[in-house]
Design goal:
The complex is a heterodimer of chains A (176) and B (458).
Chain A (H helix, E strand, L loop, with lengths): L1 E6 L2 H13 L4 E5 L5 H7 L6 H27 L12 H27 L23 E6 L5 H16 L2 E7 L2
Antiparallel strand pairs in A: 1-3, 1-4, 2-3
Chain B lengths: L25 H13 L4 H27 L14 H25 L5 H26 L25 H34 L2 H10 L7 H34 L11 H27 L8 H32 L2 H12 L3 H13 L7 H5 L1 H28 L14 H24 L5 H10 L5
Helix pairs in contact in B: 1-15, 2-14, 3-4, 3-7, 3-8, 3-13, 4-5, 4-8, 4-14, 5-6, 5-7, 7-8, 8-9, 8-13, 9-10, 9-11, 10-11, 11-13
Classes of the chains: A alpha+beta (176), B mainly alpha (458).
Amino acid sequence: MRMLAEFASGDALVAAVRALRQGHAGRLETFTPLPLPELDTLVDPAPSRLRRFMVVAALAGALMMLGLQYYSATIDYPINSGGRPLAAWPAFAVGAFEIAILSAAVAGFVALIVLGGLTRLHHPVFDWEGIERASRDGFFVEIAFADRGAADRAESEALARLLVQHGAVTVMERPS
Amino acid sequence: MSAVAAPLHVEANASPPRLLPPDATYGEVTDIVASGMERRFGRVWWIALGVSLVGTIVMLASIWTLLSEGIGVWGNNAIAVWGFDVGNYVWWIGIGNAGTLISSMLLLTRQRWRAAINRYAEAMTLFAAALAGLYPLLHLGRPWYAYWLAPYPNTMDLWPQWRSPLVWDMVAIASYLIFSALFWYTGLIPDFATLRDRSRGFRQVVYGVLALGWQGSSRQWKHYKSFYTAMAALGVPLVVSLHSVVGLDYAATLMPGWQETIFPPYFVVGAMFSGFAMVVTLTVPIRWGLGLQRVITAEHLDAMGKFILFGALVMGLSYALEWFNAWYGGNDVERDLVLFQFTGAHAWLYWTMLACNCAVPQLLWWPAARRSAALLLATSVAVNIGMWLERLLINIDTLTHGHLPARWGFYVPTVWDWTLFGGSLSLFTLLFLLFTRFVPAVSIHELRELARQEGAAR
């Protein structure tokens, strides 16, 4: 079963999610028109892993660029210009720096797509009626829970009451 | 009998000025921006589009002539090997640096007024940097061999010369263009979702694809914030490095007026200065044309005016340092060049530049001037002209007045120089007009965040 509740303000949504978390409701996800920092830890306490990918990509990019410059300037195409050292590290650092930042940016963008579950144009969440307000002024929370009969029925009704208590404008339910 | 003393108000903790109407809701700020681009565009927009389209065609004709006749159609000669081409390149890349620099700096320093200006400042960056890249490509003479600059295994067994600032420049610009495009597009994803959800039919499909299936879930927002802030933190050093490299294109030579350690930071400040001036030049028509007076307020103009004033002071100091170093260094060639700048063939341009870059912005000490759209626009246009003259004079003054008096010469731009420059301005305008039509010129989701921070909406 899935339940979707809409709130008129971010504060009401945050309060409702806090109450849901205390009652240990199942998996939940919020949909909001702006980032609410309070939800970051409430919905999923784990911090974003995205920047790890950026750091690794930056280091890898810098090393590859340094390696490329070193190989081409000293091994494959050495030019002796007035006896200056072939491995000109200060000069190589510029290109390595630029490529490091470029690699971090590209890796971060790919990580945003993968970790954020982007490019799914037909995600089931878009089937909810009124979910388009999540990009305007609607604050939504979706709760997923198992449906195993009468006991869960009672639970879902309790859940709906809790959401309304916290100011939910609408509460909808659908089988998964 | 004694006069009642008025209570003395000490506003020690005066709250910062509001940037949004006090009762703005999330829906309203969304509508202010989205309806600006959804309504029918008036006659002015269409006329501007037509004029810039004609200018763009003129630019294509100029490029066609250049490619079929060769670099000789330009005013460049054996002495002034760099003229309009490199000057315009540096001018455009300076403007092209500013958007990302402004956007990143203001994000990292949590300046709330950023929300209203960062989007079109970044668009300006992207278009200007792309146009800047066009100039060195055309200056190659045979641009179809531009890929020779890239390091790739080839049958000629050649590699780029990594010790050359010109090769650093190529790497830096290419990285910067891709970086800026990613930064800009990432910020746009949630706004494309907003447009997707408020349009129907073909528009909905296009914006839907561009929004990449954005849901606004807490997971997506968390990764988005993490990435966007990291990009801002990387953007500042990237921009500084890019324009420092442009400065090194000059400083790594042995020419008088170029071989100066001040060049990299002086170029970075110049980029920020001319970029802010261009942002203001674009702000005034965008604000008027899209009806955004409620989100781009006098507070924004005021803040940008202060930046321009600060830039003018730093530029003035940089010029003074150049003159001082020329005198104090005791090198006759350097001293002679400064004298030539003030009294030589291009002296009237140099004096105009000093007036535009240093004198005119002093107007902005007066708060009323900073808050007046007309005066601020006039100052910004003056700064744009002044910075353009500076970029041009850096090239031609030094080259036509170098070490060897026998190689002193003159530089006169030809009609093909002017058409290429005017055409690039037209293409910039054309891209910008289309941008305001199809992309939200102000970041909608950041305005919503601003509304929450200011307490207008909860």
